[in-house]
């Protein structure tokens, strides 16, 4: 009895693994088709100056208009893309689209920055730096208006990665550490990597007014940034009170639902028009 049950469990486990492997391969195929079919779209979340409330830029955030499952957030597919070669065409698509959008804003006379999220795998790709340089030249956009966001999954111990980041920086673009404070080596990043901006992770901003320890950490991050002459962006600001605290603490910029969720391009453009 126990034996057959055990065997059933084993079969069940195998079936599950097979199903998830099948699902994974299917998802990879769908992403690949989706890129060709134009199912991906960039949403834009405004980056706001805390002292005057003006939109200074946008973070490009990837969405997938899936043919049957609706609009999907990156959490539903970016990990799978990163686990395969698909992150390269997808990352390239994001880069091209964000830069061509930046050019259109420039042509309208809008002095906005655009922030682009990078996967570690893209930076590790030996062709990446040249590809970015070529795209910047092709679109003719000012490199200093482009900010690349890397997370702390980027190893500050890997010499090749550090070198790649310096080469990226030499193109004239800005570099931000995303989700700052969530990794275990945050501080070592700051003197090893050519960083311009710290984006304070949402988890510190959320409830910073109710939890003194979170507020203390936000203060330390802001003080550190000031000493190192780095720009600061608070992520995930959802209330007026949080914004007021960040203004008081001298945090340069913020993003968050309090001002706007990430929105499709036409909506972002009307936010800018209404903000001038
Ligand atoms: P992220 O770069 O840290 O982006 C911030 C995430 O927080 C976004 O989720 C945004 O919608 C969400 N958010 C912004 N403000 C608030 C707020 O006030 N409250 C709450 N609760 N959430 C807020 P999203 O768009 O689902 O993106 C998730 C992650 O996916 C991003 O985190 C980024 O790491 C990754 N990602 C997005 N687009 C790309 C891309 O083009 N390439 C790569 N490699 N990764 C991307
Ligand atoms: Mg980001
Ligand atoms: Mg973040
Ligand atoms: Mg994140």
What is the succession of H and E elements? Answer: HEEEHHEHHEHEHEHHEHEEH
Strand fraction band? 15-25%
Q: How many angstroms does the end-to-end distance come to?
A: 74 Å
Global Rg? 21 Å
Instruction: Please estimate the helix content.
Output: 40-55%
Average of pLDDT: 92
Largest beta sheet, briefly? Answer: 8 strands, mixed, barrel
In DSSP terms (H or I, runs of 4 or more residues), the helix count works out at: 11
Low-confidence stretches: 1-5
How does the helix and strand content classify structurally?
Answer: alpha/beta
- Strand order across the biggest sheet? 1-2-4-5-6-7-8-9
The tally of beta strands, per DSSP, is 10
Bound small-molecule species: ligand C2E, magnesium ion
- Coarse morphology: globular
Helix-strand blueprint:
Elements: H1 2-36, E1 40-49, E2 55-66, E3 70-72, H2 78-82, H3 87-107, E4 113-117, H4 120-124, H5 128-139, E5 146-150, H6 159-170, E6 174-180, H7 186-192, E7 197-200, H8 202-205, H9 212-227, E8 231-234, H10 240-249, E9 253-254, E10 263-264, H11 265-275
Parallel strand pairs: 2-4, 4-5, 5-6, 6-7, 7-8, 8-9
Antiparallel strand pairs: 1-2, 1-9, 1-10, 2-3
Helix pairs in contact: 3-5
This protein binds ligand C2E and magnesium ion (MG) (3 copies).
